[in-house]
C-alpha cells in the first residue's frame, strides 16, 4: 500500500479559504486510498500509532490485588482473555479502552492476550503499553500450527484464521492458577462494568456462560449430512440446544481442564475434515460440545451482529432491550467503514473508543 505524507504550513489554511476546501478534499482522497481495499485495511501494518488513554483508578471500595505473591493469579481480579493480532489491533485497543472506562475497579482487571507465535510480540507489547502505561497484562504465544491442519474453509475467509481457534486452547495457554476468565472478541466495546459479567453464576456442572438465542434456527448451523446421520444428530439428545455467540463467554477454566473440553472440540473438528457437518468456522464445535448445557447471560451483554451478515456486512439496528456490550460480529467492522467514509449509524457508538492517532490534523 502506498504511503502519503501531507504537510500543511501552519498559516496556510488561514490565508485562503478555498485552499482549505481543496486540502480537505485531498485529505478525504488520501484517507480513501489508505482505507482501500477493505480486505487489507490500515490495521494490517505496524505503522499505526495510538493515542495514550486516560488513566483509570479503582473506587475506594475495590479490593486490593497489589502486593500479592503472583498478581496475575489473583482471585480478586477480573481476568479478561482476548486474541491479539495486527489485523484487529485497532479493535482490541478500543475494546480495552471501553472496558477500563466503564469499570468500577479498572486496576483490578488483568488482561491475557493470546497472539500467534509468529506475531511481532515486541511491537504489540509496546503499542499496548504506550496507550495503557499501567495496564496489567501478559501476551501468550500460540502455536497456530496445532490447529491449522484442522481448519475447514468456511463462508468467510476471515473466519478461517488460526487465531480464531485460540479460544479452544485457553485452558492450556493461561496459567493453571486462573480459574475463571471472561473471553471477548476484538470487535466490541463495553458500556457497563465488566465485573458484573465476570460474576455470572456457574453451578458445579456448568463450564461456560454466554447469552443464548433460542429463537435462532439452530439446525441451520449444521449440514443436512449431520442431521441425516442418526449417530451425529443424537449428539443433542436430552439437550435443548440454542445458538450462542462465542465472542462473549465466561469460562471456568478449572472445570474445562477437568472435563478435557479442548479434546472434545478437536474431535469434532477432526470429524469435520472427513465429513462436512458445518459451514461456519470455529463456532459449530462449541455448539456441538456446549449448546444446551451453558449458563444463560442476559442479552444486554452481547448486542451482536452489528457488523451485519457474513456476506455483505450490511448495517443493522440494535436488538430491543438494555445494552451493556456492543458487538460488531459479522463482516462489517466499524473502523473499516469509518475509514472508507461509509459508516453505519451504530458505528458512531464505537468511534469514541478509537485510539488511532490520525496523521492529519486540519484546523477548523
From TrEMBL:
* Cell compartments where the protein resides: Endomembrane system
The membrane topology of this protein is: Single-pass type II membrane protein
State the pathway, as annotated in the record: Glycan metabolism; pectin biosynthesis
Location, primary (coarse class): membrane
Database matches in SUPFAM superfamilies:
Nucleotide-diphospho-sugar transferases
Gene Ontology MF annotations: glycosyltransferase activity
Superkingdom of this protein's organism: Eukaryota
Q: Does the keyword Transmembrane helix apply?
A: yes
Record's Gene Ontology CC terms?
Golgi apparatus
Specify the protein name: Hexosyltransferase
Q: Write down the species.
A: Gossypium schwendimanii (Cotton)
Amino acid at each position: 500500500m502506498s504511503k502519503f505524507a501531507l504537510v500543511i504550513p501552519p498559516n496556510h489554511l488561514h490565508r485562503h479559504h478555498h485552499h482549505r476546501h481543496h486540502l480537505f478534499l485531498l485529505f478525504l482522497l488520501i484517507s480513501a486510498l489508505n482505507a482501500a481495499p477493505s480486505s487489507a485495511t490500515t490495521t494490517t501494518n505496524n505503522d499505526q500509532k495510538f493515542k495514550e488513554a486516560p488513566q483509570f483508578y479503582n473506587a475506594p471500595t475495590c479490593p486490593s490485588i497489589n502486593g500479592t505473591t503472583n498478581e496475575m493469579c489473583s482471585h480478586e481480579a477480573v481476568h479478561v482473555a482476548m486474541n491479539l493480532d495486527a489485523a484487529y489491533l485497532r479493535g482490541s485497543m478500543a475494546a480495552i479502552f471501553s472496558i477500563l472506562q466503564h469499570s468500577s475497579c479498572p486496576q483490578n482487571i488483568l488482561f491475557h492476550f493470546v497472539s500467534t507465535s509468529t506475531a511481532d510480540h515486541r511491537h504489540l507489547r509496546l503499542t499496548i503499553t504506550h496507550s495503557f502505561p499501567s495496564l496489567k497484562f501478559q501476551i501468550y504465544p500460540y502455536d497456530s500450527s496445532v490447529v491449522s491442519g484442522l481448519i475447514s474453509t468456511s463462508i468467510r475467509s476471515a473466519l478461517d484464521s488460526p487465531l480464531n481457534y485460540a479460544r479452544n486452547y485457553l485452558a492450556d495457554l493461561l496459567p493453571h492458577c486462573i480459574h475463571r476468565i471472561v473471553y471477548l472478541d476484538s470487535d466490541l466495546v463495553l458500556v457497563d462494568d465488566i465485573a458484573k459479567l465476570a460474576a455470572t453464576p456457574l453451578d458445579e456442572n456448568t463450564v461456560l456462560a454466554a447469552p443464548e438465542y433460542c429463537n435462532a434456527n439452530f439446525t441451520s448451523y449444521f449440514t443436512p449430512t449431520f442431521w441425516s446421520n442418526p449417530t451425529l444428530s443424537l449428539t443433542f439428545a436430552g439437550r435443548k440446544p440454542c445458538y450462542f455467540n462465542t465472542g462473549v463467554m465466561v469460562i471456568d477454566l478449572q472445570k474445562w481442564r477437568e472435563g478435557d473440553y479442548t479434546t472434545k472440540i478437536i474431535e469434532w473438528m477432526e470429524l469435520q475434515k472427513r465429513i462436512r457437518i458445518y459451514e461456519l468456522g470455529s463456532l459449530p464445535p462449541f455448539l456441538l460440545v456446549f449448546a444446551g448445557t451453558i449458563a444463560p447471560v442476559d442479552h444486554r451483554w452481547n448486542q451482536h451482529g452489528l457488523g451485519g451478515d457474513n456476506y455483505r456486512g450490511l448495517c443493522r439496528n440494535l436488538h430491543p432491550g438494555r445494552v451493556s456490550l456492543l458487538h460488531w460480529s459479522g463482516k462489517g467492522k466499524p473502523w473499516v467503514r469509518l475509514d472508507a467514509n461509509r459508516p453505519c449509524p451504530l458505528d458512531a457508538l464505537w468511534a469514541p473508543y478509537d485510539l488511532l492517532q490520525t496523521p492529519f490534523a486540519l484546523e477548523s
